[in-house]
Design a protein that fits this description.
It holds the Pfam family CheR. By secondary structure, the chain is α/β, with parallel strands linked by helices. The protein has 2 domains: 3-64, no CATH class; 75-255, Rossmann fold (3-Layer(aba) Sandwich), CATH 3.40.50. It contains 10 helices and 10 strands. A 7-stranded mixed beta sheet has the order 6-2-1-7-8-10-9. It has a 3-stranded antiparallel beta sheet with strand order 3-5-4. The radius of gyration is 19 Å and the shape is globular. The chain starts with a helix and ends with a strand. The mean pLDDT is 96. The structure holds S-adenosylmethionine. The site of S-adenosylmethionine (SAM) has 23 residues, from helix 6. S-adenosylmethionine (SAM) binds next to helix 6.
């Protein structure tokens, strides 16, 4: 077994996270640069140190997860969501069950809550937001962001839903209350069901093809018939019908 394979087995035993389901070249490169920076010679030394050093373990988690996010990331797609997808979903159900999977630091589920609030009182908006990374979700719950996370946010939305505090922007409490954060590993934990809308963007690109196939099927099962699966702008599904989806719009798939 190679040094990296052994590391994968150790990490799985320690955390339940299966690095074998992430694209190997990318993940290995990212983690190698971390252990070299920390002065270790190989994955074995790195794992042993991680076992005793909680801070190092958190750095490892940080490096493997990649938490980059933004409000209204790829703004044109969110416009399609608001103008076309949500009105159509609301024709069937007055209350929508919505999941932001791999929500990182909260920009995505808060964007969802902001958009949904244009259709119903905020007290009726409820978004489930999940991620494998506790640190990212702790930041999400704080709801404080740098200006660069808001570069796609329209001025009127900024005024209505954020409070400027020095160099930062704080999301208002009414939006915060509409989002429930929960730890969830997409590659290991069971999925809830009966969703009208699942948003899972910019995480599937890190997974192996096999892991992705499995996940498309699981997301399909988690949706109601007619429910929508919204993916990232580099994450087109090449054969949606194989997973029970049809194309609703670019990067939006409808459960058949
Ligand atoms: C690049 S961020 C994407 C954030 C947001 N969805 C967006 O598009 O802006 C990727 C997120 O996926 C999360 N992630 C990685 N592996 C995961 C897994 N197995 N289960 C759940 N979340 C995972 C990371 O912690 C990180 O927060």
């Amino acid at each position: 077994m190679s040094d990296y394979q052994q590391f994968i087995a150790n990490v799985k035993r320690k955390t339940g996270i299966d690095l074998a389901l992430y694209k190997e070249a990318q993940m290995k490169r990212r983690l190698t640069s971390l252990y070299e920076k920390k002065g270790f010679k190989n994955f074995d030394e790195f794992f042993r140190a991680m076992n005793h050093d909680q801070a190092l373990f958190h750095e490892f988690l940080d490096r493997m997860t990649i938490n980059v996010s933004e409000f209204f990331r790829n703004a044109k797609r969110w416009e399609v969501l608001e103008k076309k997808i949500i009105p159509k979903l609301l024709e069937k159900n007055k209350r929508l069950k919505v999941w932001s999977a791999a929500c990182s630091t909260g920009e995505e589920p808060y964007t969802l809550a902001i958009i949904l609030s244009k259709f119903m009182p905020l007290s009726q908006v409820s978004v489930l937001a999940t991620d494998i990374d506790d640190n990212a979700m702790a930041r999400a719950k704080l709801g404080i962001y740098m200006e660069r996370s808001l570069q796609e946010v329209p001025e009127d939305v900024k005024k209505k839903f954020f409070v400027k505090e020095g160099a930062h922007y704080k999301i208002i409490d009414d939006i915060k209350r509409a989002v429930t954060f929960k730890k969830h590993n997409l590659l290991a934990d069971p999925f809830d069901t009966n969703f009208d809308l699942i948003v899972c963007r910019n995480v599937l690109i890190y997974f192996t093809e096999e892991a992705k196939h499995e996940l498309y099927l699981k997301f399909n099962r988690a949706l109601r018939p007619g429910g929508i699966f919204f993916v990232g702008s580099t994450e087109q599904i090449f054969n949606p019908a194989a997973y029970g989806f049809e194309v609703e719009d670019t990067f939006f798939y409808r459960k058949m």
